[in-house]
């Protein structure tokens, strides 16, 4: 059973999974989620993802249906049943189903969904050659730190990138500063210093972002967590993006203009290697399905 789902207490084939058409996640995007990369059947940074899920749920006054230890066990069991060594583990909690109405329903029971799918290996040329990206206006709401299922603005931005032949859309808030990508965090390297938007309501603080910034500081690379102007994207020697599924990816063109010499730079390559080594180190100590 390589692709499986868990819905409110029951494991099943992913193709058989169903939720109510009255579910508030379906009707309003009223829910939160996490995506966890599994390496050799070990979920990477699982506790960090669960912690962020709890914070997101708390921010929208949503009670998780299970405690962290139970939810953790469910996720590990899902990976075990899938028998997939390289997988993407997805967990989503919505406010549950109730007759349609904007205000919180009084008696709705949260819906818990967990899925496991095969991870798609990155093309090797992505790290060797880099990728193009575009910029778009940041048209999202003002609580981007909540990892909620309402992703319409992100979806539109990603589609604009696809149509432009780019991997990602980098978002510009109010025409003044870079926030993040449609599904990534964004970094620029100038004079050996890494610049990235700070944690707070304007971005989602990525798990991969946190690991990469720690690795950079441990390597002695200066880091500035502050908003920067869009012009830095083309004045920088390097630009890269990070996410759970993409890991570390160099960006060599922004809106058709070259970044630096148009090739992946040394800082990005070093951090990509350091991240891969960190995955190897932590996966060895990570919880694995029994």
Write the layout of secondary structure elements.
Blueprint lengths: L3 E4 L2 E4 L10 H5 L2 E9 L2 E2 L2 H14 L8 H15 L4 E8 L16 E8 L5 H6 L1 E7 L14 H12 L4 E6 L3 E5 L3 E6 L2 E4 L10 H12 L4 E3 L6 H4 L2 E6 L3 E8 L2 E2 L7 H18 L7
Parallel strand pairs: 7-8, 7-14, 11-12
Antiparallel strand pairs: 1-2, 1-6, 3-4, 3-5, 5-6, 8-9, 10-11, 10-13, 13-14, 14-15
Helix pairs in contact: 6-8
Provide the domain count: 2
Alpha-carbon distance between the termini? Answer: 17 Å
Query: Which fold name corresponds to the CATH topology of the largest domain?
Result: D-amino Acid Aminotransferase, Chain A, domain 2
Low-confidence stretches: none
What is the architecture of the largest domain at the second tier of CATH?
A: Alpha-Beta Barrel
Which percent bin holds the helix content?
A: 25-40%
- CA-atom Rg in angstroms: 19 Å
Keywords summarizing the entry:
290 residues, alpha+beta, D-amino Acid Aminotransferase, Chain A, domain 1, D-amino Acid Aminotransferase, Chain A, domain 2, 2 domains, nine-stranded mixed β-sheet, six-stranded antiparallel β-sheet, 8 helices, 30% helix
Task: Describe what you observe in this structure.
- The chain is of the alpha+beta class.
- It has helices at 24-28, 46-59, 68-82, 124-129, 152-163, 207-218, 232-235, 266-283, and strands at 4-7, 10-13, 31-39, 42-43, 87-94, 111-118, 131-137, 168-173, 177-181, 185-190, 193-196, 223-225, 238-243, 247-254, 257-258.
- Helix 6 (207-218) packs across helix 8 (266-283).
- Strands 7, 8, 9, 10, 11, 12, 13, 14 and 15 form a nine-stranded mixed beta sheet that branches. It has a six-stranded antiparallel beta sheet with strand order 2-1-6-5-3-4.
- It starts with a strand and ends in a 7-residue tail after the last helix.
- The mean pLDDT is 96.
- It contains eight helices and 15 strands.
- It is globular, with a radius of gyration of 19 Å.
- 30% of the residues lie in helices and 28% in strands.
- It has two domains: 4-118, Aminotransferase class 4, branched-chain amino acid transferase, N-terminal domain (D-amino Acid Aminotransferase, Chain A, domain 1, 2-Layer Sandwich), CATH 3.30.470; 124-280, Alpha-Beta Barrel (D-amino Acid Aminotransferase, Chain A, domain 2).
- The longest helix is centred in the C-terminal third of the chain and has 18 residues, at 266-283.
């Amino acid at each position: 059973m390589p692709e499986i789902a868990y819905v409110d207490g029951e494991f099943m084939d992913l193709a058989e999974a169903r939720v109510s058409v009255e579910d508030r996640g379906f009707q309003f995007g009223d829910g939160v989620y996490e995506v966890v990369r599994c390496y050799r059947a070990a979920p990477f940074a699982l506790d960090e993802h669960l912690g962020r899920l709890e914070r997101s749920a708390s921010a929208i006054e949503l009670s998780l249906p299970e405690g962290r230890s139970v939810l953790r066990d469910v996720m590990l069991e899902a990976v075990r049943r899938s028998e997939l060594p390289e997988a993407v583990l997805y967990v989503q909690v919505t406010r549950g189903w109730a007759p349609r109405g904007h205000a919180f329903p009084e008696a709705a029971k949260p819906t818990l969904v967990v899925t496991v799918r095969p991870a798609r290996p990155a093309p090797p040329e992505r790290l060797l050659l880099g990728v193009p990206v575009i910029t778009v206006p940041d048209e999202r709401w003002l609580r981007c730190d909540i990892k909620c299922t309402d992703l319409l603005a992100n979806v539109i931005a990603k589609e604009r990138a696809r149509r432009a032949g780019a991997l990602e859309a980098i978002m510009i808030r109010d025409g003044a500063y870079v926030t993040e990508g449609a599904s990534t965090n964004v970094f620029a390297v100038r004079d050996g210093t890494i610049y990235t938007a700070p944690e707070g309501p304007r971005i989602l603080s990525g798990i991969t972002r946190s690991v990469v910034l720690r690795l950079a500081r441990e390597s002695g690379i200066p880091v500035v967590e502050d908003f920067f102007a869009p012009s830095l994207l083309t004045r920088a020697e390097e630009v890269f993006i990070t996410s759970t599924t993409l890991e570390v990816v160099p960006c060599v063109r922004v809106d058709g203009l070259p970044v630096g010499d148009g090739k992946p730079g040394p800082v990005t390559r070093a951090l990509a290697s350091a991240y891969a080594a960190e995955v190897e180190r932590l996966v060895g100590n990570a919880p694995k399905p029994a």
